[in-house]
Amino acid sequence: MIKVVLIVVIAAFAIYFFYPKSPEARHWLSTNNNKYALAGNRFASTEDAISFVDTLYAAGAVKVSIPKDSIYDDEKRIKTEGGPYADALEITLPKSPSEQEELFGIINQEAIKQGMAFNPSEDVLRNRALLWWD
Fold first, then answer.
1. Would you say 81 and 34 are in contact if contact means Cβ atoms under 8 Å apart?
2. Which of 23, 45, 56, 94 is spaced 20 to 30 Å from 30 by Cα?
3. Mind listing the pLDDT tens digit for each residue in 40-75?
4. Can you tell me the distance from the alpha carbon of 132 to that of 134, in angstroms, rounded to the nearest whole number?
């Protein structure tokens, strides 16, 4: 039993410290040399995307990240576009339902623009919401 617990603790430690984490969006965007680093079909420029991230924080987001699996950072793209590209944001929500309300409105507007519907009871997992642009 002690061996199993020890293995689980070591695995959790390894995952926490060595698994690549999703970068914080504002920092990732502001250090990216790609002029259209996020969802080029939605944002006119990287600066426009940064403004949107700032809007999410102003509405109460605890953290806004670029999901690691939504980053396209192949060598050719970086060479031709100046930096990596991403097509999604992950929003960590405040715990209070009243504090989530404004963010849900923004998320819902983005979903509608993409021809989707946002349902917090189904689309919020582990207090996080995903925005993805096609």
1. yes
2. 94
3. 999 999 999 999 999 999 999 999 999 999 999 999
4. 7
DSSP string, 8-63: HHHHHHHHHHHSPPPPBHHHHHHT---TT-B-TTT-SSHHHHHHHHHHHHHTT-SE
Task: Please give the structure tokens belonging to residue 4.
Answer: 């199993």
- CA 90, CA 92: separation in Å to the nearest integer? 7
Handedness of CA 101, 103, 109, 115 (dihedral sign): negative
Distance from C-alpha of 56 to C-alpha of 43, rounded to nearest angstrom: 15
Under 8 Å between Cβ of 30 and 49: no
What residue type is 28 in one-letter code?
A: W
Query: In Å, how far are 11, 21, 90, 92, 106 from 15, measured between CA atoms?
Result: 6, 10, 20, 20, 32
Reported pTM: 0.83
Contact 26, 61 (CB under 8 A): no
